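Could someone model beta-D-glucopyranose with this protein?
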Amino acid sequence: MELNQKRLSGQTALVTGASSGIGKACAIALGMDGANVIVNYAGNSAGADEAVANIHALGGRAMAFKADVSKQEQVKAMFQSAVEAFGTVDILVNNAGLQKDAPFMEMSLADWQFVLDVNLTGQFLCSQEAVREFHRRGMRTEVSKALGKIICMSSVHELIPWAGHVNYAASKGGVMLMMKSLAQELGPMKIRVNSIAPGAIKTPINRMAWETPEAEQRLLRLIPYKRVGLTEDIGNVCCWLASDESDYIHGTTIFVDGGMTLYPGFEDNG
Ligand code: BGC
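Reply:
Sure, complex below.
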């Protein structure tokens, strides 16, 4: 990777769940685009250190911070450390998320709650701290037209129902209306809020869906563009959404899914 145009110089981005997969790619991409980056992780410190080292190697500034996004005290401590280290936070990428799949009849309350806590409540808690920090810091027109930017990592499953994953789909459906309600409420304060809805991206969360050629073929039936997504596909959109190039994009979900939401079952049917 080499340095590209630096659209985010002088800004600081906090990326949750950035020790692997989409979050890690977003953290590195934001660093490449000139932002200082807080690489949040919950357990995988090696992955977080790798993302930080990657950004340092590109000449950027980054630090790892361990926090469970579903715990308010830990989220507050993380934002405090971010402000101490870099002065403020300009961009929040609400990425931390997980799956605990089970057929509905077998899904435990604990697994329902765990997924909702991390995927939805985590985004609520981080957004609230981010907005508080945006207001404390105030406008800096020299780095951005917005007071702050929030990017929520949603999923095609904010739209596509998903049998066997009712907790996950419910959490992403919740993210959709949380994001839109926040956008409506925070827009007048010049805080820009949007979501990215990835389709099938090659990461550890869905390894079983792409790791054998047979599985990949099955998955490709759901993707009109006929390739499984890469984390860089999301990193690119994340940087653009964080930058002033997308200053008039507000309250929208950008689907980055190779067409997974186009009802591909209708290609030769119906
Ligand atoms: C899920 C993946 C899945 C993809 C497409 C994502 O939100 O986390 O496991 O492959 O949606 O179904």
